[in-house]
Write a structure and sequence with these properties.
The chain is of the alpha/beta class. The protein contains 9 helices and 13 strands. The chain has a 9-stranded mixed beta sheet. The structure holds 1-O-phosphono-alpha-D-glucopyranose.
């Protein structure tokens, strides 16, 4: 059973400056709704019971957004606006599922994951990267089904343009399982065009084993002087841990860049 999801939210969001100079990128509205709510809805719909947010003191605004009970109660005392009442109930529902842990210095996704170690109860858990929205299909739900059949780790995959391989984690395939799934032989964080083993990129949905924490504890810094989850995954694969790459259905929206962020509202509006 996959019951817990973790979401790293401590990143500075520099790719979205100036929008992020005073505001958390995950709360920026995408077609009228904060981006992070799409991610939470995906988790809830995939039957996730607890969502762990990894934030930093600088991103306290995220905690406040989900924890602003007094503010809503005061407003609702005076007004009985149906829409606000509904939104408040939704925020309360989210709040019950969310737990907060802190990563106060942004040392990379691997370091963020390590902060959740003492809260992870089962042998496998889900991780979602909030910049990566996938619409028209619940990717987490599909990956959980694959996990149930194979009892091993699963990561989302998408073909990208060869020129952009150095922006992603890139897979090397071991063998195809079927049209949409393959066993992963290796994964390399942001390789150069010449050294990339394929154009299959890691997209931000991962079902990871608890064993990853052992690797993360000794994980050295990699590309850009950060501790990457990709590097710890790679070491697990070398140890013989099975990882499946899942070419997901649905449409990917890259909300981590300004152009992608603007486009995502347009795409969701069209739905
Ligand atoms: C992260 C991962 C990378 C992955 C990407 C997907 O990179 O490190 O392997 O391909 O997310 O969005 P980042 O976007 O933090 O640079």
């Amino acid at each position: 059973m996959i019951r817990q999801a973790i979401i790293p939210l401590a990143g500075l969001g520099t790719r979205l400056l100036p929008l992020t100079s005073v505001f958390a990128k995950e709360l920026l509205p995408i077609n009228g709704k904060p981006g992070i709510e799409y991610i939470i809805d995906e988790c809830i719909d995939a039957n996730i019971k607890e969502i762990i947010f990894i934030i930093s003191k600088k991103k306290a605004i995220i905690r406040k957004y989900f924890n602003n009970d007094k503010f809503y109660k005061n407003i609702l005392k005076k007004k009985k606006d149906k829409r606000i009442r509904k939104e408040y109930k939704k925020i309360q529902k989210y709040n019950k599922k969310i737990k907060f842990v802190y990563q106060n210095s942004p040392k990379g996704t691997g370091d963020a994951v390590l902060k959740t170690q003492k809260y992870i109860k089962d042998n496998f858990f889900l991780m979602l990267l909030p910049d990566d929205l996938i619409i028209k299909r619940n990717c987490s739900k599909d990956m959980i089904s694959i996990y149930k059949k194979n009892k091993c780790s699963v990561m989302a995959s998408m073909k990208v343009n060869k020129k952009t391989v150095n922006r992603w984690g890139i897979y090397s395939k071991k063998s195809n399982i079927n049209k949409n799934n393959f066993f992963i032989k290796d994964v390399i964080e942001k390789p150069s065009i010449n050294s990339a083993p394929s154009t299959n990129a890691v997209i931000g949905r991962y079902i990871l084993p608890k064993k990853i924490f052992t690797k993360l504890k000794s994980q050295k810094k990699g590309k850009g002087d950060e501790i990457h989850i990709t590097d710890a995954i790679r070491r697990l694969i070398i140890d013989g841990e099975k990882f499946i790459g899942h070419s997901f259905k649905g449409k990917y929206l890259d909300c981590g860049t300004l152009n992608g962020y603007i486009k995502s509202s347009q795409e969701i509006y069209k739905l």
